[in-house]
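Example 3.2
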Amino acid sequence: MRHYDRWPPWLRRCRFMCCRIIIPLCCFQGLRTIFLPTTFDVILLSVLILLAAALHLEWL
């Protein structure tokens, strides 16, 4: 049993939707960072990659 199985249904649905949308966001942000690199873009890309890893490895 995963730890998020005891969460309310709306929170599980929100987590599922975040898992589905985080990879395209990372790809878009990666392309944006390659073409127009700013400090904010690099930090945002790092946060998105860490969030994607945490969601897919079920840390969150």
